[in-house]
Amino acid sequence: MDQMKKTCLHQRHVDLGAQMSPFGGFDMPIQYRGIVEEHNAVRNACGVFDVSHMGEVDIKGPDAEKFVNYIFTNDVTGAPVGQCFYGMMLHPTGGVVDDLLVYKRADDNFFLVINAANIDKDVDWIRSQREGFDVEIDHLSDSLGELAIQGPNAEKVVTEVLGIECADLAFYTFKEITYKGKHVIISRTGYTGEDGFEIYCDHDLTVEIWDMLLASGQVEPCGLGCRDTLRFEVGLPLYGDELSDEITPVEAGLSMFVKLDKENFIGKEAIAKQKAEGARRKVVGLELQDRAIPRHGYEVLNENDEVIGEVTTGYHAISVDKSIAMALIDAAYAKLDTPVKIRIRRKTFPAVVVKKKFYKKSYKQ
Q1: How do residues 49-69 score in pLDDT, each as one tens digit?
Q2: Whole-angstrom Cα distance, residue 45 to residue 191?
Q3: Cα dist. 22→6, 25, 28, 176, 206 in Å?
């Protein structure tokens, strides 16, 4: 068995008494004080996540923009330096290799942030597409740490506790600075539905910044447990649940991040065909008429008890106090207000199709 990887903050998590668990090949903190407390801290004040398990790839060279546009569904053509993009890398079939962020560092330089569980797969796949492009591909995952500082107080915390000016950053922009003599990337991005920042730097500085944040008393350490409840409530997908090698962006309701009007990119033909013909399946929101909790993989049934799909993510949501789920179901049942059922253990519970955004996002515009 492969040895579990550890982030540069692993010992800090252990010292804080975090509940640790494997995730994406890393030994990661699931919770410290508790998922509810950490979730509410991010919704109402400020929390910090160790997301150093995420992967980073740097692409530079004369063909960098052309290459990124070829492997990425969003369109980076002519974007200003400092812009961030969300999108996906696709198989020719339209299934998703991974969803990711792309940062434009220069006209000939892009920084990609990929999911922890997919690092090796993604890097191999990116490198396999480079033929015919004049680019250098640098795998940086092992040399960088990453912190996500999230919540309505995030700007105040980053400015006052860390002394980093960040009010100038609009949503989905970033800048590169020298901080304590070291190179840092800071972006106004996140995965919680709240305002926040993500900071990329070397391991030693990552630990130093973590210590500064916790010493301030203004920031709650947060684990992957509430990272999932937070992203789920605002309808953000998780690779392996709402996206996968077999689930397309059209099925996931993410077509807005697939720019079919740009030049050829991998998977374009399959997505164009699916959009024209209509997807067979769709990821929808479901609200249960009960407090029973739906979980990933539970069957979704129609009113005749025929299986029409399965739950991708489900919780009794903390911020809205309802049992809700996202589910991949037959498109015929995807219309809002359609009654369905969810099988939870041996019983079925009535549910209704609702919008996937169960909780209103609070991004800085």
Answers
A1: 999 999 999 999 999 999 999
A2: 16
A3: 10, 6, 6, 32, 21
